[in-house]
Amino acid sequence: MRLKDLHVLPKTRDSLSYLYVEHCRVDREEHAIGVWDADGMTAVPCANLTLLMLGPGSRITHAAITTLADNGCLVAWTGEDGVRFYAQGLGETRSGRGIIRQARLVSDPVTRLDVVRTMYRMRFSDPPNPAYSLPQLRGMEGVRVRQAYARASKDSGVPWAGRSYRRDKWDSADPVNRALSTANSCLYGICHAAIVAAGYSPTLGFIHTGHMLSFVHDIADLYKADITIPMAFKEAAGGSIGLETRVRHACREMFRSQRLLQRIVPDIDAVLTTTGERSDAAEVERTVQDDGRMETLWDPSGEVAGGVAHPAPADDPDEPPWLDLPEAPAGGSGC
What we know:
Helices cover about 40% and strands about 15% of the residues. It is of the alpha/beta class. Strand 3 (about 30-35) and strand 4 (about 40-45) form a beta hairpin. The radius of gyration is 23 Å and the shape is flat. The two termini are about 30 Å apart. Residues about 1-15, about 280-295 and about 330-335 have low confidence and may be disordered.
């Protein structure tokens, strides 16, 4: 069944976090999806699922993809345990407001620096002095992260020798580094889903740059010290057997208990409204509502309506005959 009115979709903040599957077949099951594996079929209600991560050995039908898209669920094709990210589907918004605003802020060095300062300040319970320079903020952030690792190591009893991760030598890493990589991968997936659902670009980062997920890394860094670092150390203390699976399950529970999905989009709006502009929180909330409006056209005087057969100038004596066309019907694409 195809939804005719996107207003009935739940808001991103009210959605479930994510579901990771592998070695299975995903098909449509009535108005939801069904995951078939060696144990049979498990029905999954996707109307309020934010992200479906498809691991190795997964197959998904066209009907399932259609159902997920109709319900605003982002689909991501990932490596084993969600560690690698290969491709993504389409989020639920069709509005360009968010990404246009993001591009404007990231393209101006003054507004970009303002956003970067805000992102750093948001990571501290006691905001630093606004007069601090960017190098000073980076130094404070480095101290904060080192303290988070040291605190998690002390609380869990897991020794900490530093962050070490090589994608091509996954098994050579110690348990806590594998746990951190797995947890961060889950966090990136949730942030990525929220960013796309709210109509922003995962590529246009402010602190990070040059990567297809730069903005995802920017936003995820707001939560690592409070969520993934302590949780990864706690799970690593339980040994390496089934570690990645345990970490994923713990992530899902912590994302739920910390109400992460309810925080991400407002936090994005907060970091992008630091330049004296009015808050676009209302626009973020109505991005789905904008999906039904006619696309507009850019003009130096402002936006003009699309889907209209604009007439040639009346005083043009050399108007070619092929411009003498009937007006486009109401609701036409104008193409």
